[in-house]
Specification:
This protein is of the alpha/beta class. 48% of the residues lie in helices and 14% in strands. The chain is globular.
Length: 430
């Protein structure tokens, strides 16, 4: 058969197109997955993506063989069987084992088998109970908790007001609502009064109102000026708005006499946004200053303050006390440790909880087809205290421990102002 130049060109073009299509359909598909088992099973792909993200992001370096064994045990438990044997103790071996077990399972149980295998493996990573698998809804709840957002409550609705109502309207609505309850002495009415008072306190203050309107975050800070002239800051938790709350309060001292002292109360503070530490201490030590280290996969990662100038106001505050207890944890423990490192304050209280992990979420690309998207919640790193030891499992020791019988005398020996010490004792007695 004789082909013209035109026919040859057309034939060559068809071959090129067909080859390209085959590469996209077959070759490229193979390149997306490290094993054939991941290509053939979405459930295997899901668990192996969890496997890979642990290797990449977990705070501790994990040997592949150790993680393979953890997944084998997790699959054994998820499948409710007695023993599963690996052909090879590597990534390919666990992918093959997952495929063999999942392939034998019924169509309806395969998704749960994959999910449960991942959940069990994550739950057994140290520290236990801090790693897990989150659905979209659970991740939103996790983020909301960090940011102090309660989506079940709207403060404007509490007062019967439209979104964004001004401060004057807030006060009027509060007075009218409380007046309706004046003769009601029931526990429900008392709870309603507290709810109304909280809404009025937040929306009736221009600074906290702006934060709430923009983020729906409730305040994490309460404060008062004590009889000695010291400023008392009570941080209930640490969210992305806490720094602005602190800055707003300190801004009130501009062109005025600085506070006679500062008491930062971290008792019961469960922590929260880690970046707060860097930004907060820029107020004390200025920009680009070393603040603390965290530990990730065998390496120390130094953190520095951002490009914010320190507040001269704080340079004039001589008496600074940081209060801790056994429920001071996470970022709040790190704050106490940094104050000790730079000798900017004296920590007063008892040893902190020892929860020195930094958790983060890592989204999974694999879709199990159940309408949910999932993310890993992983301990990404450990925070270190002032002596270079991990906070995790150790906590932070206070400079003045309230378990010592002479703690009051230590306060007097530490702080030159007797009025400040008196205020400090009153705060500690709460």
């Amino acid at each position: 058969m004789i082909f013209s130049k035109k026919t040859w060109f057309f034939t060559l073009l068809v071959v090129i197109i067909a080859g390209t299509v085959c590469w996209f359909v077959f070759g490229k598909s193979d390149s997306l997955y490290k094993t054939k088992y991941e290509r053939e099973s979405v459930q295997v792909r899901f668990d192996m993506e969890i496997f890979d993200k642990i290797i990449e992001n977990y705070w501790q370096k994990v040997e592949e063989k150790d993680l393979v064994e953890l997944f084998r045990l997790s699959l054994t438990k998820a499948a409710s069987t007695t023993e599963l044997t690996l052909k090879s103790k590597d990534r390919n071996g666990i992918a093959k084992l997952l495929w063999e077990v999942i392939d034998k399972a019924s169509e309806t149980s395969r998704k749960d088998l994959a999910l449960n295998t991942g959940v069990i493996a994550l739950a057994n990573l140290a520290p236990q109970g801090r790693n897990g698998l989150l659905s979209d809804k659970e991740e939103t709840a996790f983020r909301d908790n960090v940011n102090n957002i309660n989506r079940d409550k709207n403060l404007y609705n509490t007062l019967g007001l439209p979104e964004g109502a001004d401060v004057e309207s807030v006060e009027k609505a509060y007075v009218a609502s409380v007046d309706k309850l004046k003769d009601d002495t029931s526990p429900e009415a008392e709870a309603k009064r507290e709810e109304l008072a909280q809404a009025r306190d937040i929306l009736g203050n221009e600074n906290s109102k702006v934060i709430y309107d923009e983020t729906k975050s409730e305040p994490t800070l309460s404060n008062q000026t004590l009889s000695s002239g010291a400023l008392y800051l009570d941080l209930t938790k640490i969210s992305n708005t806490t720094l602005q709350e602190v800055a707003n309060r300190l801004a009130e001292f501009e062109d005025k006499k600085p506070p006679a002292g500062l008491i930062l109360d971290l008792r019961g503070n469960a922590g929260g946004a880690l970046d707060f530490a860097r930004y907060f201490f820029s107020m004390f030590i200025g920009p680009n200053q070393y603040v603390y280290d965290y530990f990730h996969q065998g390496e120390l990662k130094p953190e520095r303050t951002p490009a914010f100038n320190k507040l001269e106001l704080l340079s004039d505050v001589k008496n600074i006390a940081v209060l801790t207890d056994e429920n001071t944890q996470s970022t709040s423990e790190l704050l106490a440790s940094i104050f000790k490192r730079f000798r900017l304050a004296k920590t007063v209280g008892v040893q902190t909880k020892g929860w020195g992990t930094v958790e983060n979420t890592f989204p999974l690309k694999t879709d199990l087809g159940d309408g949910n998207k999932y993310s890993l919640l992983l301990v990404h790193s450990l925070t270190l205290r002032e002596d270079g030891e991990p906070i995790e499992g150790r906590g932070v020791e206070p400079d003045i421990n309230l378990k010592n019988t002479n703690w009051r005398q230590q306060l007097s020996n530490t702080f030159p102002s007797s009025a400040f010490v008196d205020d400090l004792v009153k705060v500690l007695s709460k």
